[in-house]
């Protein structure tokens, strides 16, 4: 099941539209969300997370429509969101923070606590379960953020630049984590890093200035690069071709 955006518009200020009449079907699997700075990626993820409400249009998952109050809770339970900054909750240990996130999504205290252990285990934080969340490194905090989405068994996990600021070794850890979790949920991941596209993602969404420039399989995206471009540079060349065409 996928999230469907239909004719969505959104602006932070009355006159400016950051997303303009956007229609998009997010397929299951791993989707990478690309676009220049200010394209609207974080805004789109916040709309998909139902943290922001579109000015016009709809966001639906199956028969759940975020415009309907009675659907919102169920929708939010199915959709996990990892914003750019994962904030440690003051006074909470790693496992407690994962459990707290599940409780906020509507699990009972007991369920949230029980599930939190498996969630932190899946992201490799089992040994740090009793450590204060405030003492985690940036990469560990992001892993805790992912665990928070796993506690409530989100079917779609939205991640906003999860690898920004991570060193190459940590980025590799993140990629293999994503690989491990693919059987559990679908992922929509925004990033500026195009080098690992072919290995990690099934499809690509490219936004620029709130408009959709491309949506399709990773293979068809890479095919947009000129034939002579080497394999490891094809994503970058395809991206540049589409964005420059737009300027
Ligand atoms: N809270 C806000 N109030 C007003 N304008 C905002 C706010 N957040 C974002 N914007 C504006 O909305 C537009 C889209 O921003 P957004 O953060 O969604 O882009 P992005 O593609 O995620 O960018 P980046 O790659 O730099 O993170 C930008 O013009 C930005 O200045």
TrEMBL record:
Domain ABC transporter: 3-234
Keywords noted in UniProt: ATP-binding, Nucleotide-binding, Transport
Entry coiled-coil feature ranges: none
MF terms in GO: ATP binding; ATP hydrolysis activity
Pfam (any one): ABC_tran
Keyword Transport included in the entry's annotation: yes
Keyword Transport among record annotations: yes
Source organism, top-level taxon: Bacteria
SUPFAM superfamilies, alphabetized: P-loop containing nucleoside triphosphate hydrolases (SSF52540)
InterPro entries named in the record: AAA+_ATPase, ABC_transporter-like_ATP-bd, ABC_transporter-like_CS, ABC_Transporter_VariousFunc, P-loop_NTPase
Protein name: ABC transporter
Taxonomic placement: Bacteria, Bacillati, Actinomycetota, Actinomycetes, Kitasatosporales
